[in-house]
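So, can you check?
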Amino acid sequence: MEITETSTDGLKRTLKVVVGADEIGRRFDERLGEIKDRVQLKGFRKGKVPVPHLKKVYGRSLMAEVLQETVKETSSKALADRNERPAMQPSVSLPENEEEIEKVLSGQADLAYSMTFEVLPQIDIVDLKSLKLERLVADVDPEAVDKAVSDLAERAISFSPAEDHAAGDGDRVKIDFVGKIDGEAFEGGTAEDAEIVIGQGGFIPGFEEGLKGSKPGEERTVEANFPDDYPVDTLKGKTASFDVKVKEVATPQKPAIDDELAKSFGAESLDKLKELVGEQIKREYDQASRMKLKRELLDALEKAHDFELPPSLVDGEFEAIWRQYQQNLAQAGKSAEDEEKSEEETKAEYRKIAERRVRLGLLIGEIAEKNKVTVSQDEMRRALMEQARRFPGQEKMVYEYYEKTPGALAELRGPLFEDKVVDLVLEQADPPEKKVPKEELFQQAEAAVEA
Protein backbone atom coordinates (compact mmCIF):
# COMPACT_ATOMS: atom_id res chain seq x y z
CA MET A 1 0.00 0.00 0.00
CA GLU A 2 1.33 3.41 -1.00
CA ILE A 3 0.12 6.61 0.69
CA THR A 4 0.74 10.06 -0.75
CA GLU A 5 -0.44 13.38 0.66
CA THR A 6 -1.75 15.27 -2.35
CA SER A 7 -3.26 18.34 -0.68
CA THR A 8 -3.01 20.31 2.56
CA ASP A 9 -5.20 23.32 3.29
CA GLY A 10 -5.38 24.36 6.93
CA LEU A 11 -6.86 21.38 8.74
CA LYS A 12 -8.00 19.75 5.50
CA ARG A 13 -5.99 16.83 4.10
CA THR A 14 -6.27 14.73 0.95
CA LEU A 15 -4.42 11.43 0.67
CA LYS A 16 -4.01 9.16 -2.32
CA VAL A 17 -3.94 5.48 -1.44
CA VAL A 18 -2.81 2.81 -3.89
CA VAL A 19 -3.32 -0.88 -3.20
CA GLY A 20 -1.49 -3.14 -5.64
CA ALA A 21 -3.33 -5.53 -7.95
CA ASP A 22 -1.39 -8.44 -6.42
CA GLU A 23 -2.69 -7.50 -2.93
CA ILE A 24 -6.22 -7.26 -4.32
CA GLY A 25 -5.77 -10.65 -5.97
CA ARG A 26 -4.56 -12.23 -2.72
CA ARG A 27 -7.59 -10.88 -0.85
CA PHE A 28 -9.88 -12.10 -3.62
CA ASP A 29 -8.42 -15.62 -3.49
CA GLU A 30 -8.87 -15.68 0.30
CA ARG A 31 -12.50 -14.63 -0.05
CA LEU A 32 -13.03 -17.27 -2.74
CA GLY A 33 -11.54 -19.89 -0.42
CA GLU A 34 -13.94 -18.85 2.34
CA ILE A 35 -17.01 -19.63 0.24
CA LYS A 36 -15.66 -22.58 -1.77
CA ASP A 37 -16.69 -25.27 0.69
CA ARG A 38 -20.12 -23.72 1.32
CA VAL A 39 -21.31 -23.17 -2.25
CA GLN A 40 -23.67 -25.66 -3.86
CA LEU A 41 -24.55 -25.19 -7.55
CA LYS A 42 -26.71 -27.30 -9.83
CA GLY A 43 -24.67 -30.11 -11.34
CA PHE A 44 -22.01 -30.04 -8.62
CA ARG A 45 -21.73 -31.53 -5.18
CA LYS A 46 -21.38 -29.15 -2.25
CA GLY A 47 -17.79 -27.95 -1.98
CA LYS A 48 -16.81 -29.48 -5.33
CA VAL A 49 -17.53 -26.53 -7.63
CA PRO A 50 -14.38 -25.85 -9.71
CA VAL A 51 -12.68 -22.55 -8.89
CA PRO A 52 -12.88 -21.24 -12.50
CA HIS A 53 -16.63 -21.82 -12.42
CA LEU A 54 -16.90 -20.10 -9.04
CA LYS A 55 -15.07 -17.10 -10.46
CA LYS A 56 -17.40 -17.03 -13.45
CA VAL A 57 -20.54 -17.10 -11.28
CA TYR A 58 -19.46 -15.06 -8.25
CA GLY A 59 -16.30 -13.33 -9.34
CA ARG A 60 -17.63 -9.84 -9.95
CA SER A 61 -19.79 -9.65 -6.80
CA LEU A 62 -16.99 -11.13 -4.66
CA MET A 63 -14.48 -8.65 -6.07
CA ALA A 64 -16.86 -5.77 -5.26
CA GLU A 65 -17.02 -7.04 -1.66
CA VAL A 66 -13.23 -7.38 -1.53
CA LEU A 67 -12.72 -3.84 -2.82
CA GLN A 68 -15.21 -2.42 -0.32
CA GLU A 69 -13.50 -4.19 2.57
CA THR A 70 -10.05 -3.22 1.25
CA VAL A 71 -10.97 0.46 1.15
CA LYS A 72 -12.32 0.26 4.70
CA GLU A 73 -9.22 -1.45 6.08
CA THR A 74 -6.57 0.46 4.15
CA SER A 75 -8.14 3.87 4.81
CA SER A 76 -8.09 3.16 8.56
CA LYS A 77 -4.50 1.92 8.33
CA ALA A 78 -3.45 4.99 6.34
CA LEU A 79 -4.76 7.27 9.11
CA ALA A 80 -3.14 5.14 11.82
CA ASP A 81 0.23 4.97 10.04
CA ARG A 82 0.32 8.76 9.75
CA ASN A 83 -1.02 9.32 13.31
CA GLU A 84 -3.84 11.41 11.87
CA ARG A 85 -6.74 12.47 14.10
CA PRO A 86 -9.69 13.00 11.73
CA ALA A 87 -12.41 15.33 12.98
CA MET A 88 -15.05 13.30 11.13
CA GLN A 89 -15.29 10.20 8.96
CA PRO A 90 -13.11 10.75 5.85
CA SER A 91 -14.75 11.12 2.45
CA VAL A 92 -13.49 8.45 0.05
CA SER A 93 -13.48 8.97 -3.75
CA LEU A 94 -13.10 5.92 -5.97
CA PRO A 95 -12.13 6.06 -9.66
CA GLU A 96 -14.90 7.48 -11.84
CA ASN A 97 -13.59 6.18 -15.16
CA GLU A 98 -15.58 3.06 -16.04
CA GLU A 99 -12.70 1.51 -17.97
CA GLU A 100 -10.40 1.95 -15.00
CA ILE A 101 -13.01 0.47 -12.64
CA GLU A 102 -13.41 -2.56 -14.91
CA LYS A 103 -9.65 -3.15 -14.86
CA VAL A 104 -9.64 -3.04 -11.06
CA LEU A 105 -12.64 -5.37 -10.86
CA SER A 106 -10.98 -7.81 -13.25
CA GLY A 107 -7.72 -7.70 -11.28
CA GLN A 108 -5.77 -6.03 -14.10
CA ALA A 109 -5.02 -2.74 -12.32
CA ASP A 110 -4.12 -1.38 -8.91
CA LEU A 111 -6.85 0.10 -6.72
CA ALA A 112 -6.24 3.84 -6.37
CA TYR A 113 -8.55 6.08 -4.38
CA SER A 114 -8.39 9.39 -2.56
CA MET A 115 -9.60 10.25 0.93
CA THR A 116 -10.33 13.76 2.14
CA PHE A 117 -10.74 14.70 5.79
CA GLU A 118 -10.18 17.40 8.37
CA VAL A 119 -7.82 16.79 11.25
CA LEU A 120 -8.28 17.89 14.81
CA PRO A 121 -6.16 20.95 15.59
CA GLN A 122 -3.08 20.91 17.78
CA ILE A 123 -4.20 22.23 21.17
CA ASP A 124 -1.77 23.43 23.81
CA ILE A 125 -3.64 23.51 27.10
CA VAL A 126 -2.69 26.42 29.35
CA ASP A 127 -1.64 25.86 32.94
CA LEU A 128 -5.02 25.23 34.54
CA LYS A 129 -3.78 26.74 37.80
CA SER A 130 -3.54 30.09 36.00
CA LEU A 131 -7.30 30.30 35.38
CA LYS A 132 -8.83 33.15 37.40
CA LEU A 133 -12.01 31.77 38.95
CA GLU A 134 -14.11 32.52 42.00
CA ARG A 135 -16.44 30.22 43.93
CA LEU A 136 -19.49 31.97 45.36
CA VAL A 137 -20.82 30.62 48.66
CA ALA A 138 -23.79 31.62 50.81
CA ASP A 139 -24.56 30.77 54.40
CA VAL A 140 -27.74 28.92 55.29
CA ASP A 141 -29.31 31.25 57.83
CA PRO A 142 -31.93 30.16 60.42
CA GLU A 143 -34.57 32.32 58.72
CA ALA A 144 -34.22 30.29 55.50
CA VAL A 145 -34.61 27.03 57.42
CA ASP A 146 -37.66 28.33 59.31
CA LYS A 147 -39.23 29.51 56.04
CA ALA A 148 -38.67 26.08 54.43
CA VAL A 149 -40.17 24.28 57.44
CA SER A 150 -43.14 26.63 57.35
CA ASP A 151 -43.58 25.78 53.64
CA LEU A 152 -43.61 22.09 54.58
CA ALA A 153 -46.35 22.84 57.10
CA GLU A 154 -48.33 24.57 54.36
CA ARG A 155 -48.09 21.41 52.27
CA ALA A 156 -49.43 19.40 55.22
CA ILE A 157 -52.58 21.53 55.51
CA SER A 158 -55.79 19.55 55.92
CA PHE A 159 -59.33 20.81 55.32
CA SER A 160 -62.36 20.53 57.61
CA PRO A 161 -65.91 20.98 56.26
CA ALA A 162 -67.68 24.08 57.66
CA GLU A 163 -71.48 23.98 57.49
CA ASP A 164 -72.33 27.68 57.60
CA HIS A 165 -69.10 29.23 56.37
CA ALA A 166 -68.81 31.63 53.45
CA ALA A 167 -65.92 30.61 51.17
CA GLY A 168 -62.92 32.91 51.11
CA ASP A 169 -59.23 32.87 50.18
CA GLY A 170 -57.56 29.62 51.27
CA ASP A 171 -60.85 27.74 51.63
CA ARG A 172 -61.56 24.66 49.57
CA VAL A 173 -64.89 24.31 47.81
CA LYS A 174 -66.33 21.14 46.29
CA ILE A 175 -68.62 21.94 43.37
CA ASP A 176 -70.50 20.63 40.37
CA PHE A 177 -70.51 22.95 37.38
CA VAL A 178 -71.61 23.24 33.77
CA GLY A 179 -69.84 25.79 31.59
CA LYS A 180 -71.57 27.49 28.65
CA ILE A 181 -70.54 29.89 25.90
CA ASP A 182 -73.38 31.79 24.20
CA GLY A 183 -75.79 29.50 26.03
CA GLU A 184 -74.26 26.29 24.70
CA ALA A 185 -72.34 23.83 26.89
CA PHE A 186 -68.79 23.29 25.61
CA GLU A 187 -66.55 20.24 25.71
CA GLY A 188 -64.52 19.98 28.91
CA GLY A 189 -66.65 22.56 30.68
CA THR A 190 -68.58 20.17 32.93
CA ALA A 191 -67.42 18.50 36.15
CA GLU A 192 -68.73 16.90 39.33
CA ASP A 193 -67.15 17.01 42.79
CA ALA A 194 -64.42 19.35 41.57
CA GLU A 195 -62.28 20.63 44.44
CA ILE A 196 -60.86 24.15 44.15
CA VAL A 197 -58.79 26.05 46.71
CA ILE A 198 -59.73 29.71 46.35
CA GLY A 199 -56.75 31.96 45.73
CA GLN A 200 -54.43 29.33 44.27
CA GLY A 201 -55.13 30.35 40.68
CA GLY A 202 -55.94 26.85 39.57
CA PHE A 203 -58.80 27.91 37.28
CA ILE A 204 -59.35 30.49 34.54
CA PRO A 205 -59.46 34.18 35.60
CA GLY A 206 -62.69 35.16 37.38
CA PHE A 207 -63.81 31.68 38.35
CA GLU A 208 -62.35 31.54 41.86
CA GLU A 209 -63.38 35.15 42.52
CA GLY A 210 -66.93 34.19 41.60
CA LEU A 211 -66.96 31.47 44.29
CA LYS A 212 -66.10 33.79 47.15
CA GLY A 213 -68.89 34.17 49.70
CA SER A 214 -70.63 30.98 48.59
CA LYS A 215 -71.96 28.47 51.13
CA PRO A 216 -72.80 24.75 51.03
CA GLY A 217 -76.02 24.05 49.11
CA GLU A 218 -75.91 27.36 47.24
CA GLU A 219 -76.31 27.58 43.47
CA ARG A 220 -74.94 30.50 41.50
CA THR A 221 -73.76 31.51 38.03
CA VAL A 222 -70.12 32.52 37.68
CA GLU A 223 -68.62 34.35 34.71
CA ALA A 224 -64.97 33.81 33.78
CA ASN A 225 -62.72 34.56 30.82
CA PHE A 226 -60.48 32.16 28.91
CA PRO A 227 -57.06 33.81 28.30
CA ASP A 228 -56.02 34.73 24.76
CA ASP A 229 -53.21 32.18 24.97
CA TYR A 230 -55.46 29.34 26.20
CA PRO A 231 -54.30 26.08 24.56
CA VAL A 232 -57.75 25.22 23.14
CA ASP A 233 -58.30 27.39 20.05
CA THR A 234 -62.11 27.32 20.26
CA LEU A 235 -62.00 28.77 23.79
CA LYS A 236 -59.27 31.41 23.44
CA GLY A 237 -60.43 34.82 24.63
CA LYS A 238 -64.01 33.63 25.15
CA THR A 239 -66.25 34.60 28.10
CA ALA A 240 -68.03 31.65 29.68
CA SER A 241 -70.78 31.37 32.28
CA PHE A 242 -70.75 28.47 34.72
CA ASP A 243 -73.81 27.11 36.51
CA VAL A 244 -72.30 26.13 39.85
CA LYS A 245 -73.68 24.05 42.71
CA VAL A 246 -71.62 24.36 45.93
CA LYS A 247 -71.57 21.00 47.72
CA GLU A 248 -69.03 21.72 50.45
CA VAL A 249 -66.92 24.51 51.88
CA ALA A 250 -63.89 23.42 53.93
CA THR A 251 -61.53 25.60 55.93
CA PRO A 252 -57.77 25.00 56.09
CA GLN A 253 -56.22 23.54 59.23
CA LYS A 254 -52.48 24.25 59.29
CA PRO A 255 -50.58 21.86 61.54
CA ALA A 256 -48.44 23.14 64.39
CA ILE A 257 -44.73 23.28 63.67
CA ASP A 258 -43.60 20.73 66.23
CA ASP A 259 -42.22 17.22 66.63
CA GLU A 260 -45.46 15.68 65.32
CA LEU A 261 -45.10 17.60 62.07
CA ALA A 262 -41.48 16.44 61.83
CA LYS A 263 -42.54 12.81 62.28
CA SER A 264 -45.09 13.14 59.47
CA PHE A 265 -42.12 13.91 57.18
CA GLY A 266 -40.02 11.02 58.49
CA ALA A 267 -37.85 12.96 60.96
CA GLU A 268 -37.61 11.96 64.61
CA SER A 269 -37.95 15.52 65.95
CA LEU A 270 -38.38 19.13 64.87
CA ASP A 271 -34.67 19.79 65.45
CA LYS A 272 -33.78 16.85 63.19
CA LEU A 273 -36.22 18.08 60.54
CA LYS A 274 -34.57 21.51 60.62
CA GLU A 275 -31.16 19.86 60.31
CA LEU A 276 -32.28 17.88 57.25
CA VAL A 277 -33.91 20.94 55.71
CA GLY A 278 -30.73 22.96 56.29
CA GLU A 279 -28.68 20.27 54.52
CA GLN A 280 -31.09 20.32 51.57
CA ILE A 281 -30.87 24.11 51.33
CA LYS A 282 -27.05 23.85 51.46
CA ARG A 283 -27.13 21.40 48.54
CA GLU A 284 -29.28 23.86 46.57
CA TYR A 285 -26.81 26.66 47.31
CA ASP A 286 -23.89 24.43 46.27
CA GLN A 287 -25.67 23.51 43.04
CA ALA A 288 -26.30 27.17 42.21
CA SER A 289 -22.67 27.98 43.01
CA ARG A 290 -21.45 25.20 40.72
CA MET A 291 -23.65 26.35 37.84
CA LYS A 292 -22.20 29.83 38.06
CA LEU A 293 -18.64 28.55 38.50
CA LYS A 294 -18.93 26.09 35.60
CA ARG A 295 -20.04 28.87 33.27
CA GLU A 296 -17.14 31.03 34.48
CA LEU A 297 -14.73 28.14 33.95
CA LEU A 298 -15.92 27.47 30.40
CA ASP A 299 -15.64 31.18 29.59
CA ALA A 300 -12.11 31.23 30.98
CA LEU A 301 -11.09 28.14 28.99
CA GLU A 302 -12.47 29.58 25.77
CA LYS A 303 -10.76 32.93 26.33
CA ALA A 304 -7.41 31.29 27.10
CA HIS A 305 -7.26 29.17 23.92
CA ASP A 306 -7.27 30.18 20.28
CA PHE A 307 -6.97 27.51 17.60
CA GLU A 308 -8.44 26.71 14.19
CA LEU A 309 -11.73 24.82 14.25
CA PRO A 310 -12.59 22.02 11.80
CA PRO A 311 -15.28 23.57 9.54
CA SER A 312 -17.15 20.25 9.31
CA LEU A 313 -17.62 20.12 13.09
CA VAL A 314 -18.79 23.74 13.24
CA ASP A 315 -21.19 23.19 10.32
CA GLY A 316 -22.62 20.07 11.93
CA GLU A 317 -23.13 21.80 15.28
CA PHE A 318 -24.68 24.86 13.63
CA GLU A 319 -27.11 22.73 11.61
CA ALA A 320 -28.24 20.95 14.80
CA ILE A 321 -28.79 24.28 16.57
CA TRP A 322 -30.61 25.74 13.57
CA ARG A 323 -32.91 22.72 13.28
CA GLN A 324 -33.82 23.07 16.96
CA TYR A 325 -34.46 26.80 16.48
CA GLN A 326 -36.79 26.13 13.54
CA GLN A 327 -38.61 23.39 15.48
CA ASN A 328 -39.13 25.79 18.39
CA LEU A 329 -40.55 28.41 16.00
CA ALA A 330 -42.89 25.86 14.43
CA GLN A 331 -44.14 24.68 17.83
CA ALA A 332 -44.83 28.29 18.79
CA GLY A 333 -46.68 28.86 15.51
CA LYS A 334 -44.13 31.44 14.37
CA SER A 335 -41.74 31.97 11.50
CA ALA A 336 -38.33 33.66 11.26
CA GLU A 337 -40.09 36.82 10.04
CA ASP A 338 -41.84 37.12 13.42
CA GLU A 339 -38.54 37.49 15.27
CA GLU A 340 -36.96 40.83 16.14
CA LYS A 341 -33.69 39.89 14.40
CA SER A 342 -33.25 39.09 10.73
CA GLU A 343 -32.54 35.50 9.74
CA GLU A 344 -28.98 36.48 8.80
CA GLU A 345 -28.38 38.03 12.24
CA THR A 346 -29.83 34.99 13.98
CA LYS A 347 -27.71 32.62 11.91
CA ALA A 348 -24.57 34.63 12.69
CA GLU A 349 -25.41 34.52 16.39
CA TYR A 350 -26.02 30.76 16.34
CA ARG A 351 -22.84 30.12 14.35
CA LYS A 352 -20.87 31.81 17.13
CA ILE A 353 -22.61 29.51 19.60
CA ALA A 354 -21.69 26.53 17.42
CA GLU A 355 -18.06 27.65 17.31
CA ARG A 356 -18.00 28.02 21.09
CA ARG A 357 -19.46 24.55 21.60
CA VAL A 358 -16.96 22.96 19.22
CA ARG A 359 -14.01 24.80 20.77
CA LEU A 360 -15.06 23.84 24.30
CA GLY A 361 -15.78 20.27 23.24
CA LEU A 362 -12.28 19.93 21.77
CA LEU A 363 -10.73 21.53 24.84
CA ILE A 364 -12.59 19.22 27.22
CA GLY A 365 -11.59 16.23 25.12
CA GLU A 366 -7.94 17.30 25.08
CA ILE A 367 -7.85 17.91 28.85
CA ALA A 368 -9.49 14.52 29.41
CA GLU A 369 -7.00 12.75 27.14
CA LYS A 370 -3.98 14.38 28.76
CA ASN A 371 -5.27 13.52 32.24
CA LYS A 372 -6.69 10.10 31.33
CA VAL A 373 -10.24 11.03 32.37
CA THR A 374 -12.77 8.30 31.62
CA VAL A 375 -16.29 7.33 32.63
CA SER A 376 -16.33 3.88 34.22
CA GLN A 377 -18.98 1.21 33.72
CA ASP A 378 -19.98 1.60 37.39
CA GLU A 379 -20.51 5.35 36.87
CA MET A 380 -22.63 4.65 33.81
CA ARG A 381 -24.70 2.09 35.72
CA ARG A 382 -25.31 4.55 38.55
CA ALA A 383 -26.32 7.24 36.06
CA LEU A 384 -28.71 4.84 34.35
CA MET A 385 -30.23 3.85 37.71
CA GLU A 386 -30.71 7.53 38.62
CA GLN A 387 -32.37 8.14 35.27
CA ALA A 388 -34.70 5.16 35.78
CA ARG A 389 -35.64 6.36 39.28
CA ARG A 390 -36.98 9.55 37.73
CA PHE A 391 -39.81 7.48 36.21
CA PRO A 392 -41.36 5.41 39.05
CA GLY A 393 -43.08 2.30 37.76
CA GLN A 394 -41.48 2.65 34.32
CA GLU A 395 -37.92 1.60 35.20
CA LYS A 396 -37.97 -1.41 32.86
CA MET A 397 -39.08 0.76 29.95
CA VAL A 398 -36.23 3.23 30.66
CA TYR A 399 -33.63 0.43 30.67
CA GLU A 400 -35.01 -0.99 27.41
CA TYR A 401 -34.90 2.47 25.82
CA TYR A 402 -31.19 2.85 26.59
CA GLU A 403 -30.48 -0.70 25.41
CA LYS A 404 -32.25 -0.34 22.08
CA THR A 405 -31.78 3.33 21.16
CA PRO A 406 -28.52 4.10 19.31
CA GLY A 407 -26.68 7.03 20.86
CA ALA A 408 -28.83 7.13 24.01
CA LEU A 409 -26.05 5.90 26.27
CA ALA A 410 -23.66 8.39 24.68
CA GLU A 411 -26.08 11.18 25.61
CA LEU A 412 -26.08 9.87 29.18
CA ARG A 413 -22.29 9.59 29.22
CA GLY A 414 -21.63 13.09 27.83
CA PRO A 415 -22.66 15.13 30.91
CA LEU A 416 -20.83 12.68 33.23
CA PHE A 417 -17.66 13.02 31.18
CA GLU A 418 -17.92 16.81 31.06
CA ASP A 419 -18.53 17.08 34.82
CA LYS A 420 -15.48 14.91 35.56
CA VAL A 421 -13.30 17.19 33.45
CA VAL A 422 -14.82 20.28 35.12
CA ASP A 423 -14.05 18.76 38.54
CA LEU A 424 -10.46 18.10 37.47
CA VAL A 425 -9.99 21.67 36.24
CA LEU A 426 -11.54 23.12 39.39
CA GLU A 427 -9.28 20.96 41.53
CA GLN A 428 -6.21 22.34 39.76
CA ALA A 429 -7.46 25.94 39.52
CA ASP A 430 -8.49 25.84 43.21
CA PRO A 431 -10.72 28.96 43.04
CA PRO A 432 -10.98 31.03 46.23
CA GLU A 433 -14.36 31.34 47.95
CA LYS A 434 -16.33 34.54 48.13
CA LYS A 435 -19.30 34.84 50.47
CA VAL A 436 -22.37 36.53 49.03
CA PRO A 437 -26.04 36.85 50.03
CA LYS A 438 -28.15 33.94 48.79
CA GLU A 439 -30.12 36.34 46.54
CA GLU A 440 -26.94 37.31 44.69
CA LEU A 441 -25.87 33.68 44.44
CA PHE A 442 -29.11 32.62 42.74
CA GLN A 443 -29.19 35.73 40.57
CA GLN A 444 -25.72 34.96 39.21
CA ALA A 445 -26.53 31.27 38.79
CA GLU A 446 -29.68 32.13 36.83
CA ALA A 447 -27.71 34.53 34.63
CA ALA A 448 -25.17 31.78 33.94
CA VAL A 449 -27.90 29.33 32.90
CA GLU A 450 -29.55 31.89 30.62
CA ALA A 451 -26.21 32.72 29.02
